[in-house]
Amino acid sequence: MGYIKFDKLQLINLEYSLSRELLRTNRAGSYASTTIIGCNTRKYHGLLVCPMEDIDNDNHVLLSGLDVSVIQHEATFNFGVRKYPGNVYEPKGHKYVRDFEIDTIPKLTCRVGGVVLQMERILSEDDRIMIKYTLADAHSDTKIRFKPFLAFRNVHKLSKANLFVNTKYTSIENGIKIRMYDGYKSLYMQFNKEPEYVHVPDWYYNVEYQEEQNRGYDFKEDLFVPGFFDLDIKKGESIIFTAALKEISPAAITRKFNSELKKRLPRETYIDCLRSAAQQFIYKRNGRTEIIAGFPWFGRWGRDTFIALPGLTLYNGDIKTCKDVLETMTSELKDGLFPNIGTGEFTAMNSVDAPLWFFWTLQEYLKFTGDKKQIWQDFGAKMKHILENYRQGTHYNIKMHDNGLIWAGDTGKALTWMDAVVGGKPVTPRHGFDVEINALWYNAVLFTLELAEENGDTDFVNRWINVPEITQLSFIEKFWCEERKFLADYVTYDYVDCTVRPNQIFACSLPYSPISDSKKERVLETVRKGLLTPRGLRSLSPDNPNYTGVCEGNQEQRDSAYHQGTVWPWLLGHFCEAYLKIHDKCGLALVEKIFNSFEEEMTVHGIGTISEIYDGDPPHAPRGAISQAWSVSELIRIYDMISKFKK
Known about the structure:
The chain folds into 2 domains: 4-263, Distorted Sandwich (Beta-galactosidase, Chain A, domain 5), CATH 2.70.98; 270-646, Alpha/alpha barrel (Glycosyltransferase), CATH 1.50.10.10. Helices cover 31% and strands 29% of the residues. The chain has 18 helices and 38 strands. A hairpin with a 3-residue loop joins strand 11 (115-124) and strand 12 (128-137).
């Protein structure tokens, strides 16, 4: 029996089952995602979603769904589920679902009469979905029918019936290939035994995606069905369906499924699930290794990459991938900045903190390699490049002022991680000296000096040796709110914002801190009392009049709440690290409680993973992306902190 399991009563309850989603990636950019009963509720759902470099280098839904029916005595029972206008679900395959569990891979069991059909799914690195159907029980001759629903469109858009679709197909061994539109690669659909294919091209209109409706987007789609496949199946027999961007020898399908199964990590415990989820964010394609910030709609984000990288790789026993990502990212460093989002001509460099998080990532990397000389050799020039650009000034008014602090701000831009923009205006502008940016800056300068001294770079040491003291004195003078005993969120030359936000926590957690332990203790207590929840730290104290406790509605409503009270799990990594530094073993009970409280999330929202955000108000419902890289990575880091304290 799998660690993650749902019973019949949960599965047939649509309100329950449709809010629980599955995601698997192939670490090469493709993914498969749907709900636990196979009913798509998002435009991002699909059984085969692949990058299309020849079109726009974005993900595209090729195979949206696959209806599977069993036929006995000329009666057909369809296990598919789709939503149509009027809250109509047709077919109603959820009525037949009896069991769902994940041990190594997901297994869904359906039953109708004396027929029991089990379905297991694997996504392989060659952009191939393989679904194994096993007839566990049957008392009469049984036929199984497969009806593929195709979209062939960008994940952010929806398909509409049109006259341009290419309805033709080409027969291949044990299947067909089809390409709905010019510019796309062909989709190869095959079986491990020979099917009978009946070509009856047709559109299915007004398929609805309730999550898109809830989020205020267009939510109706037309899907194309080219025809259907029929195969006889005997009790105990397994039929494997595969869809991919290239053909496979039918004789190799079963062998490939079994070999891929052996590569998969079992998910028998909570930490197993986190480690398995961590691997899903790694993206290796065309000689580059990157981190996807979250699924299903995020791409690569520079800031998220550096924050999530240690937990996803180093603490998962994968030093090589960590270095590969660092090399990929540093190849795009320009004017002291890393790409925030996008690639090539569509790159945006609007992140003041991504370059500073790079130094922290290297500090984490050093913990596992212990080789200061090699790090300096590989990345020292990049480190100095960033510091010099910040000191002299670069884009978006990012510049070290004479007080040793970093100023950042540009009209209409949100440069920190609190980056929501509504109506062309940042929700939390924070233009000026930001508390976490300057904590990161102080840490970056001292770490670079540490490596430079170790490696005999006297020119750098002489130029920078006096900067940290100036920065530290200014940091305390500018940010410390003496009356309230915590750090301001951001300041200018004539304004101090003492709003209680979590950004001050990094001045307590980073290896080099500009404040004393006694000040750290006061900051931690402020954050614990005002911001800590069982799902992360609130982005704003509930005492503030701008606090928004629920993050829902259309995009403008959600963006307005995004950093105004919404809870972020990733912040817990640095809170717990700081808490243990100050309270030592006396803080272990709280840190363990925080970590253990997330175990129940393994069966909520994104199954076996951690969501992007949660509501600030109880019961802290999950929101946003169903699986977020830095949410998962920081829980893995917390687990390591606990383990080391217990040794």
